[in-house]
Every structure is written in C-alpha cells, then in structure tokens.
C-alpha cells in the first residue's frame, strides 16, 4: 500500500493512526501542501485524487500488478482498512454503537475540519481579503462550536477513550483535531474530557508513531 499524505495534514494523520492500530505498513509519499502553490494541485496528484486533497491510499493486488484501488477521504479509507484487515477493530461490532461512533467522528471530520481546511483559510485571506485576526476568529469559532458539542457527547459516551474503553474512529479523528487546535492557540480548558482523552491516546505507540513531528517529511 502507498499512502499519499503530508506530515501536518490532520486527515492523513488519521489514516496513519489507523494503519498503526491495525498493524499495517504503507509506503508514505509526501505531497507538500504549500510548496510551489501546493503539490496537491499538480497534474500527477490530481490524476490520483481529483479532489486535490490528501490523503490518498493506493492498494495494489499482489496477484495482479495492474489492479489498483485508489481511495480518497480518510473516513472511507479507515473503514476500508478496518473491514479488509484483521487486528484491532476501529468501530464497534454492535450496529447502534457503530452508528454513534460514526456520528461523533463525523462531528469532527465533517463539521469542524472542512471549514478550517487549508483551502478554506486560503480563500478567506486570499479571495475575501480577510486579515489574519479574522481568519483566526473563523478558525476558533468552528473549533469551539464542534468541541463544545463533542464535549457534551463525551460526558455521555466516553470511558477511557471517546467511546467507552476501546480506541475507536472517534479517537482517531480527535487527536489530529486537537493537534490543529493547539497550533492555532485555541484555549482547550473548557473541554476537560477532550483533553483527558487526547492525553490518553498520546501515550499509545500507534498515536506516537503517527504524530506529525515523527514523519519523515516533517520540517
Ligand atoms: N474530508 C477529507 C479532507 C481531506 C483534506 O481536507 N485534506 C487536507 C489536509 S488535512 C488537504 O489536502 N488540503 C489541501 C488544500 O486545502 O488545498 C478527508 O477526510 O480525507
């Protein structure tokens, strides 16, 4: 398998954590999101993922060199890895619990992250000519709204981790989002459960090895 990602990409960070939890190896290929206007916009990468976003996972068939599965969207990739390979389950077996886990994970991946993605921030400052202070207010607003909702859900569903005592898709989404929030100096003190669970995850080797600073393309 080949994982196209970038050390600071939180969506690629999610997939790295999932690969580690499943005990899987993937060759990592760096797509620099800023250099030369962003390598995600270059033809070679666009051919792989027309969405011009990392991560992209390329899965090859050992029995057929020409057969390649190219997957985009971190949640789809992670669910594929979970279903295709053994090892630690990333979603609960129970159908209702699985839906709850997906809902909490999507609260991060679909409601916070896309609004604060690089291309959105570039649009705010480039096309709409907002200054850095306004951009940071925008960023903080969506994190606070999303983390406020998640903190409430964690009061109901968390144990040691976001959903009970088992690491799940929610933790995989949470840790990169907290990493990003810290980069933008968001005050996390109103979210004790988020902070506690983030700390719990960050002592696990799967999360440590996936951390942005531990990637070969980290600058
Ligand atoms: N929903 C997508 C989001 C992917 C995404 O937004 N990737 C970011 C990095 S975290 C990216 O490639 N940004 C490039 C850009 O904004 O131009 C997923 O979960 O994979």
Automatic annotation (TrEMBL):
Organism of provenance: Shewanella indica
Which family, according to UniProt?
Belongs to the GST superfamily. Zeta family.
- Domain GST N-terminal span(s) in chain numbering: 1-89
Query: Which Pfam families does UniProt cross-reference here?
Result: GST_C, GST_N_3
Q: Which Gene3D superfamilies match?
A: 1.20.1050.10, Glutaredoxin
Q: Which keywords accompany this UniProt record?
A: Isomerase
**Name assigned to this protein:** Maleylacetoacetate isomerase
Source organism's superkingdom? Bacteria
């Amino acid at each position: 398998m080949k994982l196209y990602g970038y050390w600071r990409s939180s969506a690629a960070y999610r997939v790295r954590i999932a690969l580690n939890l499943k005990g899987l190896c993937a060759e990592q290929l760096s797509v620099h999101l800023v250099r030369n206007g962003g390598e995600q916009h270059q033809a070679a990468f666009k051919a792989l993922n027309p969405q011009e976003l990392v991560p992209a996972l390329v899965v090859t068939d050992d029995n057929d060199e020409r057969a390649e599965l190219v997957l985009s969207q971190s949640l789809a990739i992670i669910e594929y890895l979970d279903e295709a390979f053994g090892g630690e389950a990333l979603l609960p077996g129970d159908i209702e619990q699985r839906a709850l886990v997906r809902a909490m994970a999507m609260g991060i991946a679909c409601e916070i992250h896309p609004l604060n993605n690089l291309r959105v921030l570039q649009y705010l400052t480039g096309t709409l000519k907002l200054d850095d202070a306004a951009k940071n207010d925008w960023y903080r607003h969506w994190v606070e709204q999303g983390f406020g909702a998640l903190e409430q859900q964690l009061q109901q569903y968390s144990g040691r981790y976001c959903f009970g005592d088992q690491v799940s898709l929610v933790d995989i989404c949470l840790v990169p989002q907290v990493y990003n929030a810290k980069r933008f100096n968001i005050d996390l003190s109103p979210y004790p459960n988020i902070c506690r669970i983030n700390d719990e995850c960050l002592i696990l080797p799967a999360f440590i090895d996936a951390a942005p600073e531990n990637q070969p393309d980290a600058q």
